[in-house]
Amino acid sequence: MTLTLADIRAAHTRIRDRIHRTPVMTSATLNEKAGAQLFFKCENLQKIGAFKARGATNAVALLSDEEAKRGVVTHSSGNHAAALARAAKLRGIPAYIVMPSTCPQAKVASVRRYGAEVILCEPTYAARESNAKSVVERTGAVFIHPFNDPRVMAGQGSLALELLEDVPDLTDILCPIGGGGLISGVSTAIKSINPEIHVFGVEPKGADDAAQSLAAGKIIPCTSPNTIADGLRGSLGELTFEEIQRHVDGIVTVSEEEIVHAMRAIWEVMKIIVEPSGAVAYGALVDGQLDVPGRRVGIILTGGNLDLDTLPWMTPATA
Amino acid sequence: MTLTLADIRAAHTRIRDRIHRTPVMTSATLNEKAGAQLFFKCENLQKIGAFKARGATNAVALLSDEEAKRGVVTHSSGNHAAALARAAKLRGIPAYIVMPSTCPQAKVASVRRYGAEVILCEPTYAARESNAKSVVERTGAVFIHPFNDPRVMAGQGSLALELLEDVPDLTDILCPIGGGGLISGVSTAIKSINPEIHVFGVEPKGADDAAQSLAAGKIIPCTSPNTIADGLRGSLGELTFEEIQRHVDGIVTVSEEEIVHAMRAIWEVMKIIVEPSGAVAYGALVDGQLDVPGRRVGIILTGGNLDLDTLPWMTPATA
């Protein structure tokens, strides 16, 4: 199956009353530094603090009443967990979230706050999958994958419709790549509306499986990720890889230093909080790695959830 | 002289193309916590990272060509310094900024980036005043006070017009008080448009000169401020005290703990950066000090400029 602009438009219509229309912010200081016009789509200001609210809300809205009443399940230590818990709460159905036992307490608490049942498991991918499978067998709940699901991909892509509505004459878009759900939706929307806009994926050098996969023409799993950008440590899915091959113009990889510089510049200059994964797209520009003179560049800031006690440039105060 | 709504409307028309129309943000989480509808006017996202851009831009715009070509001068270690430097740059005139030599290098650098001449002086109020006076004698530049100036007060009040346009049915507004420039403009605008809206000033317990002054019926200077909210350590001016007496319904004082709680809650939940002074208004609600059940409360977040290496809940990483 192939994701279409119609899927994404339908997703947007379906979810728009349950998400924030996030602002597109600009900064004269960062424009001057880049020698370009930058347009930051602030999904860090989205419900639950990340774009994941879009895909999860769309997926839950698309369930039949029969499916919905059995609830939804996923495994995630990150923003998809909170997003799915919230989406289930909005529909009034159960959510079961499998989370690794090493997950920060704050993340577990935020999922529980939405009324979801949290199942803690060993911190391995195999344990996460088998626990999720047990939940499905026990409850009949519907599994909602964090990215390799057309309903989720279409939901994420809805942010591109808003961005193009606000800034129709973009020349380029920079979008982080983790599992590829976001860039699948975004690139499908953008290329369907205006194929002349360049869509670049950005990923950490320490988790450059998308660059490797595109070069190899097949999915190369991310086996030993080494990056502060914890949202981008996963591998591509079959469905997302297909869309990436079809639509994405290139992948830029960024160093850990560039990620932290980007994050700090956004905090200092724009006065908004992005998590490391959320700052990666701007990492392609912050130290001049990608040169975009005079262009009009959309930059997707994907999320703002992180532990304020452990910032990359600080050590915690001793009690 | 008395500040009027007409002054504030004229200021808004004069400056609106040179400032951001800052967003009014809401948070379901913080609403639930407060048991009220909260509307955050995000002046931390304003040009130069603070509402001070409004008053300085208005004051500079009102200079005659004759005055303007001699330039402007002020003394400030804070946001007014950057705001005046930027306003002067926009008009293409000189700016002279007297700053205490103890001022963080980052603040000095940000003022110089706007092309202003920085005059460093001893860190006393007397030294600041005498240095500013010398500049006036040497250059003929016009002194622009950070708050006790009707042009500045009218400019700051323009944010209230935007807030009421976006949320016409507010019941209360919480506004920080330092020198009183902001609350003078805001309370004049609000009470002129709808006298039923309550306007509360909020200040640190460790710099509660506005509460003392209102109680005494005369200006009680803030002689030994003790607060993390460095933008609120000054005393009221004659002009601002007059407006505060006329329009403000009450003053709430907040503890240092409440200020830090408020700041951290805004960072964590709203994903935006406010400085301690900028979070003070929300400090009145964060621990339930002021009870506003079911009301619709405007909260002014005034600025987002602070050193990210010295957050109140962290110690700097050792090199």
UniProtKB/TrEMBL annotation, chains A, B:
Q: Which residues form the Tryptophan synthase beta chain-like PALP domain?
A: 16-303
Looking at the record's lineage, which domain of life comes first? Bacteria
What does the record give as cofactor?
Answer: pyridoxal 5'-phosphate
CDD domains assigned to the protein according to its UniProt record, in alphabetical order: Thr-dehyd (cd01562)
Q: Which InterPro entries match?
A: TrpB-like_PALP, TrpB-like_PALP_sf
**One Pfam entry name:** PALP
Sorted alphabetically, the keyword list is: Pyridoxal phosphate
Q: What is this protein called?
A: Threonine/serine dehydratase
Organism for this UniProt entry: Steroidobacter flavus
